[in-house]
Amino acid sequence: MLMHPNNGSLFGMATHSENTVTINQPAAKVHEAYSSRAYWEFIAANLSPEPGEVNEFTDTSVTLFEVLPTTLLPEAVQSMVSQALKVKRVVNIGTLEGEAAEVSYTADVKGTPVDFGGTIKLTGSGETTTLTYDNEVSVNIPFMGPAIEPKVGEALGDLFNQEGELTEKWINENL
Q: CA 41 from chain center: how many Å?
């Protein structure tokens, strides 16, 4: 069997990535935003040049249908994808305990061999909240997947930073 130095196999292993986003708002307000349909509608409408939609919503879970431009993808992948990515993202929001909550998400990119998901530790400290993302990215393309996954992880980091900026803006304007 061929071995890959990063993950042991050329097939079927996910790449781990981490990133941190700081929001200049207290944890209670960030959690309140996460528990609001209006917040998620704002995120779906503004995170990408092409608006997405909130498909399902409860105060502990949201399903988003998002459309991401191919420019978010690594160049090596852009040539294989002919149109914008249709992403189904499900976010599960844990209870706020003190200034902390656990959030998790899964995402499936329709019609592609790309899946990602992870956990987000929401931790407040006074007037700031830190979101610590622990992501798993899987690109199920033989031989190429392990090379592409870290690049997708970087693109996710950029996307989550943008989402953090939008979160801060929404809270400033609505809470």
A: 15
